[in-house]
Amino acid sequence: MELNFANLDIINSQLKSLERKIKPKLLVVDDEPDNLDLLYRTFRRQFQVLKAESGKDALEILKQEGEVAVIISDQRMPEMKGTEFLSKTVPDFPDTVRIILTGFTDVEDLVDAINSGQVYKYITKPWDPNELRTVVDRASVSYNMLKQRAENLYRAQEQTELMATILRTAQHSSSTADYIEQIAQAFGKSFLAEVCILQEVEEKQLTEDKGIYRGKDKLLISLENDPLTSKVIITGESHIWVKSSSTPYPERGEAYEATDLQMHLVVPVNYRNKTLALLSLQWQQSPTLSEDELKLIHLAVQQVALAMITI
Question: What pairs with residue 233 in β-bridges?
Fold first, then answer.
């Protein structure tokens, strides 16, 4: 879908809708296949459920999948107890919420695990499905709140650093070419984009002067052949494209598909109704941009415009 960035409320609601489609990950660990299937059926609508029949298998899944929101593990399993497995996940995934299922009373193991922060709650077997859903719902909320607080802190630091970089770079750059290269790097890193391009515009035409930030081995979408670019130049307003299951690559052809692009944002760098450059942010992972981040991008781009006319 393509959206006129001038209407921030519409774009923000669309991005939130995209975020809601991304299910959080839940890892369930039990050596009994019937229990795994039951847990999968219980939570498959709400979560992306990953299954493992042992602590060893679960650790391998985490290496491949990365952090999950919640882990539900049986306590009594061959080779490795649930509490032992969960303790091994803490160093790499401290924010994950851990729940233990136990069919016996091993008070010492459970108390130690809970006191050390390795286990959020334990549930006795056979469990009540409604009780387990309630516990997992609360665990998911707790995880989201923790991640949100960390994200807010990170974004506040990034905002301060980005604005400082824009001003500092303008003071020390010897040319516009040097400036736009460093600014592309700063925007790409700040907004966790795989690719960022800052390309100059003259007389409503792209020039060859551009700065590029590109993550390792990441393909980029050239602005010269992108219809999104021409719309931004013509209107002087930002546009965003988000991958849709119904129309994944409208008017983009094989170029977008080859990069597995999920979102492309193009913002004009305007000064007094004149477009000086275009800023392109490209994400291959599914990004989530908040309204504050969208506003920050526009505020930062305004500072870039002021800097470009003085270099």
Answer: none
SS3 243: coil
Torsion of CA 32, 37, 39, 44, to 10 degrees: 150
Please provide the DSSP assignment of 207-226 as one string.
Answer: EEEEEEEE-TT-----STT-
Tokens representing residue 98 in the block? 């851990």
Question: How far is Cα 31 from Cα 56, in angstroms, rounded to an integer?
Answer: 11
Q: How far apart are CA 163 and CA 121, in angstroms?
A: 43
Contact 13, 296 (CB under 8 A): no
Distance of CA 39 to CAs 48, 141, 276, Å? 12, 19, 56
pTM: 0.64
Return the SS3 of 111: helix
Whether omega before 126 lies within 30 degrees of 0, making that bond cis, reads yes
Between the CA of residue 61 and those of 58, 64, 172, what are the distances in Å? 5, 5, 47
Look at residues 85, 76, 83 and name the one whose alpha carbon lies nearest to residue 57.
85
Nearest partner of 74 among 86, 89, 64, judged by Cα: 86
Distances (CA, A) of 132 to 18, 38, 53, 299: 28, 12, 19, 45
The whole-angstrom separation of Cα 263 and Cα 261 is 6
Would you call 257 helix, strand, or coil by DSSP?
Answer: helix
Q: According to DSSP H, which parts of the chain are helical?
A: 8-20, 33-43, 55-65, 82-89, 107-115, 129-172, 176-190, 227-235, 253-259, 291-308
Cβ count near 101 (within 10 Å) = 22
130: three-class secondary structure by DSSP? helix
| Cα–Cα dist 130/246, whole Å | 35
- pLDDT tens, residue by residue, 16-58: 555 555 789 999 999 999 999 999 999 999 999 999 999 999 9
Tens digit of pLDDT for each residue in 250-266?
A: 566 566 777 778 888 99
